[in-house]
Amino acid sequence: MRVLPRSLLGQVMLALAAALLIAQAISAVMLYRAASERREFALSSAASFQLLVGQRREARGGPDRELRVRPPRPRGGRGAIDDAPIIRLPRSIRFTNSTSTPLQPGDERDAARETAITQQLERQGLSVAEVVAIERSLRDDPLIARLEDTSPAWRQRLRDAPHELLVVGLRQQGETDWQVARIAVPPRDRGLVGTLLLQTLIQFLVLVGLLYFVLRRITRPLATLAERTRRFGSAGAPEEPLAASGPDDVRRLIDAHNAMQARIGSMLDEKDVMLGAIGHDLKTPLAALRVRIESVEDDNARTKMAATIEDITRTLDEILSLARIGRSDATPEMTELGALAASVMEEFEDMGQPVTLSEGERVAAPVHLTWLKRGLRNLVTNALRYAGSAEVAVLREGENAVLRVDDDGPGIPDERIHDMLEPFTRGEASRNRETGGAGLGLTLARAVAEQHGGSLVLANQPTGGLRAEIRIPL
Q1: What is this structure's pTM?
Q2: 330-473 has which CATH code?
Q3: What is the pLDDT of residues 400-419, one digit of tens each?
Q4: Third-level CATH fold of 229-327
């Protein structure tokens, strides 16, 4: 199964979508890292600031020894807890003094935060002996537990809060006590992902929409040009020049195609006139010669001369037929191919030739009736000439209609199968060369198949004999 689109429009649109998604993924990673770094810097700065402010407050009025809790203000008031995006803990919890380290069993120290906070405090002139930074659940901190016990309002607020708690302990040089700062860590902003998705969707709609209209302006005339070239290549029938449209580059391409088509059409017309004249000029003396040999008294000589004239005439007819294939502008007719094959078989049966038509499914296709009969007739004649019998079948294989002719003759060497499709190429002696024609039968059949957009396939059968198939796409 094909995954990638075949058309230029589809491939460019797919490439744009992939590039946009990759760019947005890179942008999302960079934005997420930048947001994380800003968040960590803000938390470290808040902890450092809390330690500095707490020390200055102690220097002015002494440390807070008891836990004093101010109840939350009513909803809608200034600084109300319920309306604040980040929980602001009471001052008596935000900064405390302790005679022991704030580490508890099971806590894991955050080395990166400790380094950042140490550097910030040292820049403010503090002599830092040790810094401890840990992040734990709000409910696991002993001061938060005391706050819940003493304030029902805070108990409800903290129970529903999705925050974690950042605890930072500072011990300065020459001291044994610890200054401890506690800051509620808000959850990560989940709106960033939605913003990026919305941004990607808007960019995708704008860029893809604009590019789609631009590409359609380019690919539409290209598709028309490709179809016109295909029709001209298969039929060679003259058509009106294609109207130039699209960008200047595409217009110049269409103008060049129109000029080339006119030139090729003129050459094909000249070729047809020349071949017609050659055929007329040759057939006239051949007919006169055919009359004159009637005066030859030797019957054997007269018969040989008449056969030679007939061979020349037949070869000339085949050459003219080969030149005319594809030059007709007649519209293909929807034909049931089984009936077409049956009518050809009747011609050979009337002459007493051993041909058979296998029964198969009904297959209908638009074809040039006269030419397809000619191609099938040539294949049957070829089989009768070299094998003495022919078996014809009409079947459908996938999206192709197949006219198959089998024989039980000697076949063709594999290395010569391709050469046998060229004009004036006949089989070797093992295929009864003496009774061979001019070597144009298979060439004509191939031209007929290609006229219908198909192909002629020759293959030796495993059981012996040659299989020839005219394959026409449906």
Answers
A1: 0.48
A2: 3.30.565.10
A3: 899 999 998 888 888 887 87
A4: Helix Hairpins (1.10.287)
